[in-house]
Amino acid sequence: MTDYGAFATDPLFGLPLEELWFGLVFFILGMFLFLDGFDFGVGALFATRDDEDERETLLAAIGPFWDGNEVWLVVFGGALFAAFPAVYANLFSRHYLLMFAILGALILRGLAPEMYEQRHDEAWQTWWGRSFVVGSVSAPFFIGVFAAHWLLGISSLVSLPGVVVGLAVVALTIVAGVGFLGMKTRGALQRDVVEYGPKAMAAYLALVVVTLGYLVVLRPDLGVIAPIPLALVVITLVSAGGYLVTLREERYTLAFGTVPVLVFAFVALVAVLMFPMADPAVGLTVSDAIISILPLNIMSIAAALLLPLVFSYFGILYSTFRGPIETGESYS
Amino acid sequence: MLDPVIASRLQFALTTIVHIIFPVMSMGLAPFLIYFTWKDIRTDDPVYEQLRRFWTKIFAISFVVGTVTGIVLEFEFGTNFAAFSTAAGELFGGPLATEGMMAFMLEATFLGVFVFGREKVSDALYMVSAVAVGLGTWLSAVWILVANSWMQTPRGFELVRESDQLVISLVDPIAAYANPRFPWMFVHMQNAAVLSVALFMAGVAAYHIWQRGIDAEDNQQSARFWRKTLKIALVVLLVTAPFQAIHGDAYGRHVYETQPQKFAAMEAVWETDSYVPEYLFAVPTSLEHITDPRAKELLGIGIPGGASWLASGGNPQAEITGLNEFETEAPPVAIVFWSFRLMVAAGFWFILLAFWAAYRWWTDELYDDDLLHKAFVGSSLLGIFAVEVGWIVTEVGRQPWVIQGVLKTQDGVSPGLTGFEATLTLVGFVFVYTGLLGLYTYVIRRIIREGPPSVDGTSPTETATPSGVSGDD
């Protein structure tokens, strides 16, 4: 048997790998919610359009991107499994039906635009258009429920905080979708779509306030009133203000630029409130749940080498399809 | 309500059996697409643009359905097999995470460029994106098979007791991941994927040639397209079909050495024996022969010493350990035994088909032999069928173990899972996956019926020869 020496007993360069991986898992979840979030938002906004060309433009806007965006969810599952297998197993099996609800929504969302383009008759496109909307709204809703239940250690199928956070995530995806379509569309479509931005933002902020109120009153043990969570709340408020102002000034790239800040502030809040627990429901801490040093070192090297490559692919993809969708450009 | 163990196993079987179709399509199409893209860029011949565009449509839809069904599998480890995931996560999660970061990301991002970007990027970047997509699909298989092969021939770990549970701890990553089974699985799987897609292509092309009676002098665009498709598919078939048989034979020996219980189930050998015959053409004469095959009692042409010869690599006297000798219960022998025979039979048929078509090509009658065309049409899905039964041999043959010799499948299921939940999602998946398969078939059929996209302004359907005009002599 090969001797792996210190590599099998000491963390790489003495780094706090447990905490880094806890952060990385949430970072990956944030990437998913940011990138696929605007796809979901475009899906929700699809419901507000009934003009055939406008619908095609919305689909064309996300066409080249959504496959890659969704892979972040796969990487999230993989990273959680690889670094915290006990959390992955406990969390996913405990939220059994919820996980399948997420999967069902994602199947519907993934399939619908492909199917929509296959036939150009009304009944077919009405049906798949609706499926696209339902999948795009229900997926972030269930993911929000999942995040709330994870943080609060709720095991039941439905809960009030779950519903509130679920709706907040839906609102956040619409905020993201509006920002994205602000950049990708022009003319009347752009004007109409952008109007949903302030409404979605108002809903998001209201739901965040309700959630924070709940946490302050009923879950003081989580410590919302502490410097870091409060800083994240301030960051959220400032970004929300920036979003509203830039949207009004029609500076859509800047408006879209606030979206990752909002999303990562949300995800970071969940992570910070949860830490040092990794699965609060069963009292599993990050140090309890982490894999042993040897595989942890290997996974860290793999992630350090691969994630920059992944970002370079996304750089190529997004720069290839930058700029607004031209008229007549369709999904396939 | 079903028992949660049974329901979880059925659900995983169902979701894998459906999912595998789509990666087979993408992995098999990938080298073809790289070739078509290369020729499209380097030559003026429009047929390569048609080939690229036509098969890219099929690739793209396969990728989408493969993604949504693949996420389900990744989540099912956590939802239904939590005990397995907790115990083996340290070894098993790593390859899955690496698959996502290294392979799936590469494939999914460059697929965007490949499908939507022909007019937007340079030829060089377009070629890079074709290669990146192909590389991504194949690297996915690398990491999935690293994980799976470790479950077949586990190495490089030790068992540690953590609180109240046995946990598998990685101690030697090189031994674990450079696993003895991996190269066998990878080569067999990739060749099977390319072979399956070649058969599918040949079947589709033969269908059009046969239906429209395209003859050798026909020069219209779609006729050229289908002839070209058939020839390219045939060349690939001629290489992959015989190779799969040769490789499969050696692979069988490796299984005999590392998983003797699986090998015994493949041959339905219950009592340890030497000079064991190989029943390649076993015929069930009663219901019992189907549900409980025992090689010795089957009516068939047994090659004397054949199974021993296969197991040992040339010694007809070699001993095969019977299923009764093992401490654990036997895997479901009937499923393994018949699946194995169906796979082997399909494999030999592919070789025969390839040689038959090659002979017709050589006599200049490739486009005129209607019987050959019908055979191709009938075989177009048989490659995928062979992959399915091959995987059934691999996965069912490993039972009762989920990790060979380490963890039993029944001990890997989520402890808190209720029969109600498991049955509910199983029923849900039966509906959803039946729907998915139906939709996929429907879309693929539409694409095939539509035929190749026209290039340079000529519509292929306008100039099609009326059907009924046959190319027969």
From TrEMBL, chain A:
UniProt-listed GO biological process terms: aerobic electron transport chain
What does the record give as EC number?
1.10.3.-
Where's it mainly located? membrane
* Superkingdom of the organism of origin: Archaea
How is this protein named in the record? Cytochrome D Ubiquinol oxidase subunit II
Enzyme class, one word?
A: oxidoreductase
Query: What keywords does the record list, in alphabetical order?
Result: Cell membrane, Membrane, Oxidoreductase, Transmembrane, Transmembrane helix
Give the signal sequence positions: none
Entry's transmembrane regions: 20-48, 69-89, 95-112, 132-152, 158-181, 201-218, 224-245, 252-277, 289-314
Q: Where in the cell is it found?
A: Cell membrane
The topology of this chain with respect to the membrane is: Multi-pass membrane protein
Give a single Pfam family match.
Cyt_bd_oxida_II
Among InterPro entries, the record links this protein to:
Cyt-d_oxidase_su2 (IPR003317)
Q: A single GO molecular function, which one?
A: oxidoreductase activity, acting on diphenols and related substances as donors, oxygen as acceptor
A single GO CC term, please? plasma membrane
From TrEMBL, chain B:
The answer to whether the entry has keyword Nucleotide-binding is: no
Q: What is its main location?
A: membrane
Q: Name one GO molecular function term.
A: electron transfer activity
Instruction: Output the superkingdom of the source species.
Output: Archaea
Q: How does it sit in the membrane?
A: Multi-pass membrane protein
Q: Which GO terms describe its biological process?
A: aerobic electron transport chain
Q: Does the entry feature the keyword Ribonucleoprotein, yes or no?
A: no
InterPro entries the record matches: Cyt-d_ubiquinol_oxidase_su_1
- Keywords recorded for this protein, A-Z: Cell membrane, Electron transport, Heme, Iron, Membrane, Metal-binding, Oxidoreductase, Transmembrane, Transmembrane helix, Transport
State its location(s): Cell membrane
Sequence intervals crossing the membrane: 12-38, 58-77, 97-117, 124-146, 192-210, 230-247, 335-359, 371-393, 422-443
Record's GO cellular component terms: cytochrome complex; plasma membrane
Q: What is its EC number?
A: 1.10.3.-
Q: Where is the composition biased (Polar residues)?
A: 456-473
* Enzyme class name: oxidoreductase
Region spans: Disordered: 454-473
Q: Which PANTHER family match?
A: CYTOCHROME BD MENAQUINOL OXIDASE SUBUNIT I-RELATED, CYTOCHROME D UBIQUINOL OXIDASE
Name of the protein in question? Cytochrome D oxidase subunit I
Q: Which organism is it from?
A: Haloferax mediterranei (strain ATCC 33500 / DSM 1411 / JCM 8866 / NBRC 14739 / NCIMB 2177 / R-4) (Halobacterium mediterranei)
